[in-house]
Amino acid sequence: AACSFRRSIASQLSKVLDLPPEKLIKSISAVPVSKKRRVADFQLSIASVTEDSSSDCLAQDLNLQAQKLAERLKCDAVVSEISTGPGTLNFTINRELLAKTVLQQVLKDGSEYGVRSELFSTVPRQKVVIEFSSPNIAKKFHIGHLRSTIVGNFIANLKVALGHEVTRINYLGDWGMQFGLLGVGFQRFGNKEKLKFSPLQHLFEVYVQINKTAEDENTKKLAKDFFRKLEEHDEQTLSLWKQFRDFSIEEYIRVYKRLGVHFDEYSGESFYQEKSQEVLKMLEDKGLLQKTIKGTGIVDLSEEKDLSTFSTVMRSDGTSLYITRDLAAAIDRMNKHSWDTMIYVTDKSQSNHFQHLFQILKLMGYDWAERCQHVSFGLVQGMKTRRGEVIFLEDVLNEVRSRMLQNMASSKTTKKIDDPVETAEKVGLAALIIQDFRGLLSSDYQFSWDRALQSRGDTGVFLQYTHARLHSLEQMHGNEQLTDVNVACLQEPDAIAVLQHLLRYDEVLYRSSQDLQPKHIVSYLLTLSHLAAVAHKTLPVKGSTPDLAQARLCLFQAARLVLANGMKLLGITPVTQM
Ligand code: ARG
Question: Most CB contacts within 10 A, which of 36, 225, 301, 381?
């Protein structure tokens, strides 16, 4: 919808401004709907198209330019009014055309509404590798892993929606000295049955227990032996380790499924112990590897801007480190997938690590290092369950589900629904995701179950509630085929506000695709829900003339569709009852 309007405004402007329409399209933006309602549908900021964009270009000059331009433009079949604001040109779309075009486009494009916009037409299709979640076997699945999981899933969804080819990788912490300790622990306290039926819990417990004696000389020696045998691929040792890994992955898959998340590849640090030896060799050949007096291997990054440090890539006994394995993994992924962009999603405490990683790759001569990206996020404090500390992802999912069930049971608005447990889970997850995605990813926040689960206000519960209500409206009155409906009668301010807001969806997707921040979509969907809720009140379907009733149904159907599209991008499954 937005695109054809934008295009036709651009083509008129391009004659007057003597600029190609393609250059103008991104400068023409749909005006956000505010409380005061808005002056027009589209806006062009004069500063964005003038040659002289320096700050000393006075506001007055811009206003004058806007006025002069307005005089040279004419209304046409699409644009019914042209006005000027501070430094802007404002365009109002023909009212009948607005309703018709927007609704037609939404209902026709369905799940592709917004992404087919011309804003994306110049974006080339890419191969994207995105690595996220990446928990450590036998350790806590902490809130950072949860954030990585939902953020990574969002980015992957968005990239897929925009037509890119996406590979989702889970890079497990499945190697290192701690597996020596875990192996010894398992020999001492382990239980094969428990390992099979509840691997994450059991391995965690074993690991906690053996850690209590980790300082004993005897345990130390045994752990070292176990890990050495692993590195030497001793068959028995390796097969036990493989069970740790395989059973854990099985359980991860099951739990991720509850979140609606899947991976194309379960990789892990263990894959790269040998390849990291090759990396060390390459570093040496290129003269990048230096040895310290203690015998550790380092790469000097002091010449690199902003870093002025060195990075340790080899222990004194010649074994690899976290970063060495990451170097090997990056190179391997390039060989395997020849990706255009690779994205890592972790909390910001690993920012230095990834800076070093990318810099070393660059020094090694890989120009694709520039196409690696670290998406980092802030810390979350205070997530606790009723039972105490969160240890597993499943604890969080169970907690949010049971809290939501309780809220639903005590709420007056809850209808009798078919599957309350499943609904509670989906609504609860929406609450978690929206709470997490509302702000900038880089900011830290204090976690609160109560705030997240409020039914009013800007929460995931509210989005789900709105979706369910719009859905039941459709159920009650049936879906409308737009071809027979005259939507031109949608002229009430509350209807126009919804239409104007729908017009803006592609721009919001565009912003999120640029900075990979979900918050643009979140606040868009919250506004959409508020506008739809108001319209639902003031524009009744029942009791209206058939024409009006049908047109309004179309409007609500379009609103629900875009709401559902946006929610799915964020990783939320919209519910149809609650
Ligand atoms: N397993 C790591 C952790 O829990 C995260 C891995 C991040 N990815 C990477 N390629 N280093 O901290």
Answer: 301
* 346 Cβ below 6 A of ligand 1: yes
- Kindly report, residue by residue over 227-265, the tens digit of the pLDDT: 999 999 999 999 999 999 999 999 999 999 999 999 999
Q: Catalytic residue at 139?
A: yes
> From the CB of 133, is ligand 1 less than 6 Å away?
no
Q: Which position has the token pair 């369905």? A: 110
CATH architecture type of domain 2-93? 2-Layer Sandwich (3.30)
Kindly state if the Cβ of 136 falls inside 6 Å of ligand 1: yes
**CATH label, 398-570, candidates 1.10.730.10, 3.40.50.261, 1.10.150.240, 1.20.1200.10:** 1.10.730.10
- Asked if pLDDT for residue 392 goes beyond 80, the answer is yes
| Residue 145 known to be catalytic | yes
* DSSP 8-state secondary structure symbol assigned to residue 438: S
* pLDDT averaged over every residue in the chain: 93
Predicted local confidence at residue 1, as pLDDT: 44
Is 142 catalytic? The answer is yes
What is the secondary structure of 126-177 as a DSSP string? Answer: -EEEEE----BTTS---HHHHHHHHHHHHHHHHHHHTT-EEEEEEEEB--ST
- For residue 171, the CA-to-ligand 1 centroid distance in Å is 7
Which one-letter amino acid corresponds to residue 137?
Answer: I
State the catalytic residue, choosing from 142, 164, 229, 467.
142
